[in-house]
Amino acid sequence: MCLAADIPLVESGTAGYLGQVTVIKKSVTECYECQPKPTQKTFPGCTIRNTPSEPVHCIVWAKHLYNQLFGEEDPDQDVSPDTADPEAAGDAGIAALEGKANNVDAGGIARTSTREWAASTDYNSEKLFRKLFYDDVKYLLSMDKLWKKRAAPIPLNWDLLPPEEPSSTTNSNGDIKDQRIWDVRECVEKFTDSLAKLKKQYRDQGDLVWDKDDSASMDFVTAVANIRAQIFGIARKSRFKIKSMAGNIIPAIATTNAVIAGLIIMEALKILSGHLDTCKTVYLNKRPTARKKLLVPCFLDKPNPKCYVCSSKPEVTVQVNCATFTVKMLEDKVLKAYLGMVAPDVEVDDGKGTILISSDEGETEENNDKCLADFAIRHSSRLKADDFLQNYSLILNIDQCNIFDDDVDFKVVGEKPRPISETEATSSKVTEKGESSSQSTSQPSTVVDDEDDIMVVVDEGQEASVSKKRKLSEDMDDKSAKKSKVTSQTRNGDDDTLIIDP
Fold first, then answer.
1. Roughly how many angstroms between the first and final C-alpha of the chain, as a whole number?
2. Crossing angle of helices 55-70/239-246, nearest 10°?
3. Single pTM value for the model
4. pLDDT at 187
């Protein structure tokens, strides 16, 4: 919105004790999309369903079960054993395909929708427990290839639960209620109680959405995750820990928020007074730097010339299989979800002005289920996309690709900014110690700036002297005009040594 309106934006964020403030101005500084965002961590479905090895795997499985029972059903969130697991190929997989898994030994349970089966039992906690934590685990054990190199799970029997653990049912160690780890019997009790409450909510409200602040929802996920962890020999976690992991919670520190709020005001005052050129990106570190500084200022980075949002002529290259990729997928997955458009209009740049997608409701709905190839879109085709609500337009270059990784329908390449390698990141970004591993000694500056990444070295009792590293050609041209040369020598201990040659 600020880019479209050409209004400066003071952007900030905190994460525990860490924080940062920066200024975004169209054509002056980099925007949100100038640097690639880290992809959200995901886990293979076969790991979640068959071979969990970490508490987070059990938590994800518990949330999937919640959605299967009470939320919006998603085929990708199935909680039954995954017979398609390539590591489990063998007799068990063949038996599953032939329907032999539905015999008495496997619990006599037909592999139907989890919700349909649960509803047929009136959400009976004992029957659900036997299916999820005994029958399905016994079925997993039949996939013997899975357990040749890892510990096999131990099914839990409703009638033969592990004995009560006194230390976990008392508060003798002074733990806060939510920080106490439930034993298996208490997990089963919480599972039964929360199941009854959620069943009532589901019947009254329809599909539920998991909420970490809803007591019944949180109890359900905590109990289910810990029961599954017990089966696979994984350490159980407290309700507090599971809430943090399931809800992606980063603790908010009041002092961090206060410091960042103050920095926001300082940068805003610079903008309002017309001194945009003095604005800085400021990082708040968890620990003081070698110079005993918690706040580290850096120059604002220049816009990425290949950014598909803020460049003057934005273009992006998209790899798709034109024979299978539909217009609706292009609209929802590429334009809206990935590129952030709101109401896109798309036409084929073929000289005919073929309208592929229109923001006017109902105008191009008949195109939704058609594949791109149906509109003669092939390798090297160009699509013009425009979002009038954001005053944003760009060109999509189509790159035909027939093979993708699992669960991937498209890939953005070419004009997308390249990811920064770990080596570059550590050599150019300001670290928590306020240092950089870049060791350029031939530049007349106390700032190392590689690809517009800056290190600021601040001496005690004086302002930071910062400047940009110039290209070698510029350095040679100006060499005769230099009056002095400052070179930074290798650090010795915690002190920086500057040698000034007249």
1. 51
2. 70
3. 0.55
4. 95
